[in-house]
């Protein structure tokens, strides 16, 4: 999905595991008046194709890179949540893209490392439940915690294909391997350790450099943009404004 003005800077947003592009649309709405805003469905998610293979980290990053090439995107602001953060981190290393800034919302390596050996079977069972549930029942399930997102979450869960288990099987490399040297100003958003105890602040501090800021978001879990949407947007706006990237 592309919206906004093609005369403005490009903001490209990449969604998380089992989400779709619509899940990030409330966040993207802030930028459409003055920016060229692009959202997409990762393979196996939303309305994208679900081939049998290609769920390794580099192939999914290549999908994003090919999208940027097709749309002739250069100098974008890149925003990625979870799975999207991993793809964004990897594609940002490419010399031809030259991102202006990067926002990584809870890169998933720390979460996946903490989930343990039962995660694959649990995710398989979850995908099966989603496939047999009705959209209405899923929306009702999400309503109490995320009323603003309940409908799009239900849609995303109905759209996701079982092929994405390939992502669960391979897991994620730590961020310091996925993006060892951020090429531009980079904001890493992490959830509140009281909500998400899997976070490793010391490893984040070791990864950070002069171009990088790590921000812990009070009261947020893994989906910071859903748990604390206004605060998340305020933090992102402040970061972009500091680097002259917010109109």
Q: Could you list some keywords that capture this structure?
A:
single chain; Rossmann fold; 7-stranded mixed sheet; Alpha/beta hydrolase; AB_hydrolase_fold; alpha/beta; Carboxylesterase_BioH; AB_hydrolase_1
Textual characterization of the structure:
InterPro entries: AB_hydrolase_1, AB_hydrolase_fold, Carboxylesterase_BioH. It comes from Natrinema salsiterrestre. One of its GO terms (molecular function) is hydrolase activity. With 247 residues, the protein is α/β, with parallel strands linked by helices. It has one domain: Rossmann fold (3-Layer(aba) Sandwich), CATH 3.40.50.1820. The protein contains 12 helices and 7 strands. It has a 7-stranded mixed sheet with strand order 1-3-2-4-5-6-7, with helices on both faces. Helix 3 links the parallel strand 4 and strand 5 (101-105).
Give a brief description.
The chain has 247 residues and is an alpha/beta fold. It is built from 12 helices and 7 strands. GO terms for molecular function: hydrolase activity.
Q: What is the element layout, followed by pairings?
A:
Layout: E1 2-4, E2 10-14, H1 25-28, E3 36-40, H2 57-70, E4 77-81, H3 83-91, E5 101-105, H4 109-115, H5 119-132, H6 135-142, H7 150-159, H8 165-170, H9 175-178, E6 186-191, H10 201-207, E7 212-217, H11 224-227, H12 229-242
Parallel strand pairs: 2-3, 2-4, 4-5, 5-6, 6-7
Antiparallel strand pairs: 1-3
